[in-house]
Write a structure and sequence with these properties.
By secondary structure, the chain is an alpha+beta fold. It has 1 helix and 8 strands.
């Protein structure tokens, strides 16, 4: 259930436009029918005259941090599913083929890491600071 109140500033993720926009809750309506309870929010967006009504459960967040965390989680889940599908296709189409494995050794000198490739070649790789 939504804990948003009238006059709260919320953040709406607009999937089609790939944007997150702030909005102010102008009206909150709780709707109960045979399929359950839903909360509809009438939102006031900056620069838009008409109120936009949205379901409070759909891409409406109480903070930018919450929006960011949820969207990153969704993207991560989507990427994980894509990788799982690719792995299943690989296993079906290319039976018995193994992926090369890169082993990163713990030897670090001058911000460089030693990497051993599948063929035994060892390379020194400088990794970015945020890696």
């Amino acid at each position: 259930m939504s804990s948003f109140k009238v006059q709260d500033v919320v953040y709406v993720a607009l999937e089609k436009k790939l944007q997150i926009l702030p909005a102010r809750v102008a009206e909150k309506v709780t709707k109960e029918d045979s399929s359950g309870t839903s909360i509809l929010l009438s939102l006031e967006f900056p620069g838009v005259e008409e109120l936009q009504t949205v379901n409070a459960d759909n891409n409406v967040f109480g903070s930018l941090e919450a929006a960011r965390a949820e969207l990153i989680n969704r993207i991560t889940n989507s990427i994980d599913k894509m990788c799982e599908r690719a792995q299943k296709i690989r296993d079906t189409a290319f039976e018995g083929v193994n992926e090369p494995q890169v082993v990163v050794q713990s030897e670090e000198t001058d911000d460089a890491a030693m990497v051993e490739m599948p063929d035994g070649t060892v390379a020194r790789v400088k990794l970015p600071d945020n890696f």
